[in-house]
Amino acid sequence: MKACEGSPAGSNCVCIGENYKKLTWFQRVFGVLLIYVPIITMPFIFFSAYISYLHLKLMGAENIKTLSDFLPARKSHRYTMKTQI
């Protein structure tokens, strides 16, 4: 028995995969491709960010923040043996 089968009638239960076989071949292929689009485009995003950074440096920009300037200190969000739940 699924968890949503025992729920009261009229509840909004999300059912994933029940209609997969009813979809057309094109819809299934397109849906699977949408999973991989962000993975494929990620190198281009990093490359364009680096090109923008390099452009600013070549144009004479100073005090440009890097990614590490926006991240918290590594120890600030780590558990220790004393603070672990």
Describe, in short, the structure shown.
The chain has two helices and no strands.
What does this structure look like?
- With 85 residues, the protein is mostly helical.
- The protein is 45% helix and 0% strand.
- It contains 2 helices and no strands.
- The chain has helices at residues 25-58, 67-70.
- The longest helix is centred in the middle third of the chain and has 34 residues, at 25-58.
- The two termini are 33 Å apart.
Number of helices: 2
The overall pLDDT average reads 83
Q: Span from first to last CA?
A: 33 Å
- Class by alpha and beta content: mainly alpha
Shape assignment: flat
How many strands appear in the DSSP assignment? 0
- Strand content is under 5%
Helix content: 40-55%
H/E series, N to C? HH
Detail the poorly predicted runs. Answer: none
The Cα radius of gyration reads 24 Å
Q: How many strands, which pairing sense, and closed or not: the largest β-sheet? A: none
Entry keywords:
85 residues, mainly alpha, 0% strand, flat, 2 helices
